[in-house]
Amino acid sequence: MDKLIFKVSEILQSQIGNSEVYSFDVPLELENIEKSGNITGKVEIMRIEDGLNVIARDIEMTSNSKCTKCLKDFHPKVKVKFAERQFMIEKPLKVEDENDLYLINKKNYTIDATEMVRQEIILHFSIISVCSTGCKGLCPYCGKNKNLAKCTCSELDEADFEENKPLMALKEFFNKK
Ligand SMILES: [Zn+2]
Ligand SMILES: [Zn+2]
User: 83 alpha carbon to ligand 1 midpoint, in Å?
Assistant: First the structure.
């Protein structure tokens, strides 16, 4: 399945306020997003006056990322608790933003929630850039991953070195005399 498509012919024929809930677990491919595994979640489709109100809940996706501090590959979970869009039967006369317009496909009475889910995942995606809040990153001197091993050139050594610099200079000065 490369799209998140739901049949809506029945719900469209039902009364306003009626709703149906679908769970999904699909290997959805999303443009510009690297992921591992399926995207899961729930979709609640409710009949409203001019179409359908679509609520997506608990969308989860595991992404493939690289930690910006230690450069390790890691797989943060992207979670979207709640997202809502309206899918219209007819295109409204006035459209403020074409990108925010969702229409019911009247050829086969389906809706495609792919774009909605993609937008929400991107919105929640960028905030995760480090493998953990406690990531120590790479040592700026030797390049070792400080999460895995301590290196001898710790920042403390460097601080000591900086502190002793004036003393060493003074020592050198006297040694020359
Ligand atoms: Zn890291
Ligand atoms: Zn080091």
Answer: 30
